[in-house]
Amino acid sequence: MKWTKQDLQQYIQAKEYVDTIILPLIPFHFSTDSSLEKDAFQREVLSVFIRELEKEITGRILLCPDYNYLKSADKHNEAKRINSWVDNTRSQPFNHLFFITADSSWKKFEQDLKGTLIWLPGIVTESMQVKERQSVIYSQVQQVSELIRSYWKDNK
Known about the structure:
Elements: H1 5-13, E1 20-28, H2 33-56, E2 61-63, E3 67-70, H3 75-89, E4 96-101, E5 116-119, H4 130-154
Parallel strand pairs: 1-2, 1-3, 1-4, 4-5
Helix pairs in contact: 2-4
């Protein structure tokens, strides 16, 4: 389920079945012109990936709005802000929380987060043909959806 009025109405009706949140972590910055296009492309790829992942495992997850932060921000402070957000979600019956990002710098702060970090390396490039990109994204969606399902199995 996405963060839309219609899907949230559906979530409220089926709350006991939706036990997983996915929160995309999206960096941005304007400091260097040379990386603006590259970063924007990675964000676009991550957005496609997350939409496809939501379709793949719909019915049990709630896809939250993106968490945007400055790329140069102190990750320790950002982790505190994210954890405050996580604490707020505890009023709902969520058992699993996944953070998905293409920003490898989060790996150093993974243990500070109250959830599971999934880092997607930027293996999709602008030079790839559209079909090749789709194939790579589909493969990643399959792998990550299986990873998420393994968490569900472990908690039964």
